[in-house]
Design a protein that fits this description.
2-enoyl-CoA Hydratase, Chain A, domain 1, 4-stranded mixed sheet, alpha/beta, 2 domains, 259 residues, single chain
Amino acid sequence: MPEAFELKEQGRVLEVTLCRGKANTITAEDSRELNRMWESFRDHEAQRFAILTGKGEKFFCAGWDLKNVAESGEESDSEYGSGGFGGLNYPRNFYKPVICAVNGIACGGGFEMMLGCDIIVAEEHATFALPEINVGVLPDCGVVKLRRRIPYHVAVELMMTGRWMDASEAKHWGLVNHVVPKGEGMAKAREIASQLASGPPLLYPAIKQVLKMTENVSENEAFAVHDACAAVEKVNRSEDLKEGALAFSEKREPVWKGR
């Protein structure tokens, strides 16, 4: 069993809890283990959603284990796995929704793992930062992803000063979806997962795939990508599409089959 995270299956939902040390930090080997775990989740037909959180009340994840770096000499450009640090920076063919329950400090690589999730719940005491500037490390995922999530000038200041952002400000900039009282992050994440699990299975990967594939193309090109997307074609030819229309006309809840 990996030392850095714990897994728990709740029906169609895989719950992933980061748990190394007091700050839920991650070494290069942990990152490779996380990559393998996310790849297994991606390929597991029965698991449709995941929730990522941290153990305890103080930390979600403090990112790269700097204590281990000092003791082992681990390099900042170490091999972290095919999807990058923590497995969520640039995972391959990964279109299942991941909900993040931020239960405390999310900084450095922990903040960047959060950026790789799709729906983010933050507890009211959560704080966020990319403090790599203070130790001479480039926030690799931050410099690519953060400016795509929040205004450029806010992103630049966070990375160049290493300042902290609280949950209220994160919500203001749209960095998180929900802010909930302390200790209620997982309950809200499970509520969202339950809502998603009751919906049409084919739609979620199609939505995520099109969003990812059209992020950096013009609107006209985006429609061409949409029309050529295999996941979209699968939805358009599905029994579930017919079932949705039939259920609407019959004024009943649809029965989704995922095909």
